[in-house]
Write a structure and sequence with these properties.
Blueprint lengths: L2 H26 L4 H22 L4 H26 L18 H7 L10 H11 L8 H21 L6 H8 L1 H14 L11 H8 L19 E7 L10 E2 L2 E2 L2 H6 L3 E8 L6 H11 L21 H6 L3 E7 L8 H8 L3 E3 L9 E2 L2 E2 L1 H18 L2 E7 L26 H25 L6 E7 L11 H11 L5 H5 E7 L7 E3 L3 E2 L3 H8 L20 E3 L9 E3 L2 E4 L8 E4 L5 E2 L3 H21 L6
Parallel strand pairs: 1-9, 1-10, 4-12, 4-13, 5-6, 5-9
Antiparallel strand pairs: 2-3, 4-11, 7-8, 10-11, 14-15, 15-16, 16-17, 17-18
Length: 606
């Protein structure tokens, strides 16, 4: 290739290199040009070179399409990482059908500078006028060979590395390579854990406890024979419970309920990419998810050992309620697998009081209450699983559903909108509890209320919002406040205003409920009875880098795409230095997660 013919091709690959470099610096804070040139860039350059070689008659069209696609990928990864603080994998392409339901949130994430990823299209137009036809050259074959060799070496090296955290893996081995490795592992089933087995005794030992058979637990059978109502509250975080703003309680109904409840104030979310649907899975199975893959996208349709199935053997009929499309997050697969006798979705509920994605929570609760008389006649006892939705991001509530008189500085802010949405959710929980009392069901039931995941996180949280949160909390917003969700268990005569500050996770909900109902369970559970055990060791994936853990005394955040690892005192959230206990917990939590993954194998697709 002579120098004249080389110029347009050199410019094309230069533009691509600049774009890849900008992406790496933005997402991974990478400053090593050598790492970019020899790890990340060659894969992207290889694809472009192959396209130019194959489509000889349409080379400019190939360049335009490829450049646009790469810009689109980088743009999407940027928005995704801004919201979830992790990078998306090719698995997340399975969720594209869900995007229309959360489109409003995307607008909150966009920074005008993000569109600079598409700026090379302008430069391409300029050089396209200079070279209207890209010259033919055999040198492209040598470029393909060169990029292929480098890409093969870096990808082969990456395949041999364990993926503990996808963001950190992509930082070290290249984003493109991380996707190729995941595809390879998925097809060879290496992504699934080995057949690790842990006895209940060994599992409790890893958590720091001495195992005690469930029938010997002090509270075993405390709520035996009662109906069960589980209420999953959208985006409710624990820090709002008991708090006030300008003299107004954020959760007045839950606050009042605490006087006759057991309140677990140190429970962490453990969801992965499936967010709300993952919370449903964890609460109804006592099992982890794989983190990077929404569990609902993996289920093979087989029946899963679950809360509904366990209760069915005791004469319970079960129903689940969610005011959204049944196919959203594949709940048409999830609910039958969990064994619910009755499934109610947006198709079954009145099309009124629309907020966000569907009918407001008050419509949801009214519908569930209307079904109770028939169900009480049909079944000996009932289990109702009610999944709330109105307090979903972006938290925009109609004026008639706003119960807070926000101070001026909170108006039209993400934090202010969140508090307003959570206040609405609390009101509907209060109305539902009062209805159960009025019908005489409160004294005959065990009611469980818990938050599914955090609502305040990611790019929508502006500097102004951080200042407001600091003012609202009285201190900086910490990881603990971000990831803890309320867990309240109540029912007539069961509890007397008990607050349990011991560490818990969402995997502990089902074991605790079964113990209260006096049911011994024959299938493995990753959680335990929160009333019985004082210590815990929890894994968290996706929202914190893989390898992170929460233990009764400390919270460890593993190294991620941009930040080094960090250890915190769980009580004070002050930074601490790592010690031998930290290293032990890192090893132990990996064993726990691998065991959790092995329990999923029979229920997920090959």
């Amino acid at each position: 290739m002579n120098s004249a013919k080389a110029v347009p091709y050199l410019l094309l690959f230069l533009f691509l290199f600049i774009k890849v470099s900008a992406f790496r610096m933005l997402i991974f804070d990478t400053k090593s040009i050598g790492h970019i040139a020899f790890v990340e860039f060659p894969v992207w350059a290889l694809l472009l070179a192959i396209g130019l070689l194959i489509f000889k008659k349409h080379r400019w069209l190939t360049v335009w399409i490829y450049s646009f696609l790469v810009s689109g990928i980088f743009f999407a990864v940027t928005l995704y990482s801004r919201y979830y603080t992790t990078i998306p994998s090719y698995y997340d392409l399975q969720q594209t059908t869900q995007s229309s339901t959360v489109g409003t949130t995307i607008l909150l994430l966009i920074n005008p500078l993000d569109f600079l990823f598409f700026s090379d299209l302008i430069l391409l137009a300029i050089i396209g006028r200079r070279w209207r036809r890209l010259p033919r050259t055999n040198a492209l074959k040598y470029a393909v060979i060169g990029f292929l060799v480098i890409s093969a070496i870096t990808t082969a090296y990456a395949i041999k590395q364990p993926i503990i955290d996808i963001s950190y893996f992509a930082k070290e081995n290249g984003y493109a390579q991380s996707q190729l490795v995941q595809m390879y592992q998925q097809t060879t089933e290496k992504a699934h854990a080995s057949s690790t087995e842990l006895s209940p005794k060994k599992l409790e030992e890893l958590k720091g406890n001495e195992f005690i058979p469930v029938h010997s637990h002090e509270n075993f059978g405390l709520a035996e024979g009662r109906h069960l109502f589980v209420v999953q509250v959208e985006s409710m975080q624990n820090f709002v419970v008991g708090k006030s703003l300008a003299g107004q309680e954020i959760t007045p109904n839950i606050n009042a309920l605490l006087d006759e409840s057991a309140y677990f104030s140190n429970v962490f979310q453990q969801i992965g990419a499936g967010t709300t649907s993952d919370a449903e899975w964890i609460a109804n199975t006592g099992l982890y998810t794989e983190g990077m893959v929404p569990i609902v996208n993996q289920l093979n349709g087989d029946k899963v050992p679950s809360l509904a199935n366990a209760l069915k053997d005791k004469g319970y009929g079960s129903a689940t309620y969610h005011a959204d499309d049944i196919e959203f997050w594949n709940r048409d697969v999830l609910y039958p697998a969990l064994g619910f006798d009755e499934v109610f979705s947006i198709e079954d509920m009145p099309d009124i009081k629309q907020v966000g994605f569907g009918p407001a929570d008050e419509v949801l609760f009214d519908f569930a209450l209307d079904e109770l008389p028939r169900q009480l006649k049909t079944y000996d006892r009932i289990y109702s699983n009610i999944v709330m939705m109105t307090s979903h991001t972006p938290f925009l509530m109609p004026e008639k559903m706003q119960y807070l008189n926000l101070p001026k500085e909170y108006e039209d802010t993400h934090v202010g909108n969140y508090l307003q949405a959570v206040r609405y959710a609390d009101e509907q929980v209060g109305v539902f509890i009062q209805e159960l009392k009025d019908q005489g069901l409160f004294d005959e039931s065990l009611i469980v209320i818990f938050g599914d995941h955090s609502g305040i996180h990611g790019s929508p949280l502006s500097l102004e919002d951080e200042v407001l949160l600091n003012d609202f909390l009285g201190h900086p917003y910490s990881l603990k406040e971000r990831y803890t969700v309320p867990l309240v268990m109540t029912g007539g005569g069961l509890f007397e205003g008990t607050e349990m500050k011991r560490l818990g996770g969402q995997v502990d909900i089902m074991p605790t409920v079964l113990a209260l109902l006096g049911i011994e369970y024959d299938h493995p559970l990753m959680g335990h009875n929160l009333f019985q055990y004082e210590k815990n060791l929890l894994g968290m994936r996706y929202y914190m880098p893989g390898g992170s853990f929460i233990q009764s005394e400390q919270l460890y955040k593993a190294p991620g795409a941009k930040l080094p690892d960090m250890l915190y005192d769980l009580k004070t959230m002050e930074k601490r230095g790592k010690n031998s206990e930290t290293k032990k917990h890192i090893r132990d939590v990996q064993v726990i997660l691998e065991y959790g993954d092995s329990l999923l194998k029979p229920y997920i697709q090959d």
